[in-house]
Amino acid sequence: MRKFLTVLAALATLGLSGCGYNAIQTNDEQVKSAWSEVVNQYQRRADLVPNLVNSVKGFAQQEKDVLLGVTNARAKVGSVQATPDVVNDPGALQKFQAAQGELSSALSRLLVVTENYPQLKSDALFKDLMSQLEGTENRITVARNRYIKSVQDYNVGVRTFPNNLTAMMFGYKEKANFSVANEGEISTAPKVDFNPTPAPAK
Fold first, then answer.
1. Shortest CA distance to 176 belongs to which of 90, 92, 117?
2. Helical (H) or strand (E) element with 176
3. What's the whole-model pTM score?
4. Are 46 and 100 contacting, i.e. CB atoms less than 8 angstroms apart?
5. 36-141+176-187 — its CATH code?
6. What is the spatial distance between Cα 3 and Cα 18, in angstroms, rounded to a whole number?
7. Domain spans in the chain, listed from the N-terminal domain onward
8. How far is it, in rounded angstroms, from Cα 202 to Cα 150?
9. CA-CA distance, 123 to 132, in Å (whole number)?
10. Which residues, in sequence order, are CB contacts of 107 under 8 Å at separation 6+?
11. What is the 3-state secondary structure (H, E, C) of 24-35?
12. 134-187 pLDDT, tens per residue?
């Protein structure tokens, strides 16, 4: 009897591996790993923001609205729980993206403001923070690209035959991927104008 059960277990294992079960598990783990790296890089950016705000605050006290906008956006990012389950919930992923997008937008406004403060731009602390922020943005891009690729591999795996039968049997569904929130805006080419703005007439 024991021999029969051993043979049955071996056949079941071979059957599962042959129908894509192991591939689904591997791809699922790659998605989780890639997502952890995305969250890690976004957290790195969020950790830099308070230092950046304090650095600017010392030079530009009058820019309170912009600084408050960055602080609030950073707080909103912190309130969105980026658990591993987010990758299985399109609504939660969209909420996470929206919060990160809001912080990106607030940081962009902050950088525009800093252009009016040449002293600030030459400050060593500010330059270091900007360098770190730039590096973080690059890391976020790389991490997101890896996540997008991992989700693509996973989704192809659970949708193609015979893996799709195994996925249905074990309840594996397609995962949501990153999308562009402002697709309309980025589809318009930016205007480049090298002509200086004329001084207002006196």
1. 90
2. none
3. 0.77
4. no
5. 1.20.1440.20
6. 22
7. 36-141+176-187
8. 60
9. 14
10. 49, 52, 70, 73, 133
11. HHHHHHHHHHHH
12. 999 999 999 999 999 999 999 999 999 988 898 999 999 999 888 766 544 434
What does the alpha-carbon distance between residue 106 and residue 12 come to, in Å, rounded to a whole number?
A: 54
Burial of 124 (0-12, 13-18, 19+ CB in 10 A): exposed
175-194: b (≥16 Cβ within 10 Å) or e: bbbbeebeeeeeeeeeeeee
Task: Classify residue 7 as exposed, middle or buried by CB count within 10 Å of its CB (0-12, 13-18, 19+).
Answer: exposed
Give the C-alpha distances (Å, rounded to integers) separating 114 from 46, 64, 103.
19, 13, 17
Q: Which two tokens stand for residue 88?
A: 């299985």
pLDDT along the chain (202 residues), means of 10: 49 55 92 94 94 89 89 92 84 91 92 87 89 94 95 94 90 86 47 44 47
Count of alpha carbons within 13 angstroms of residue 184, beta-carbon side: 0
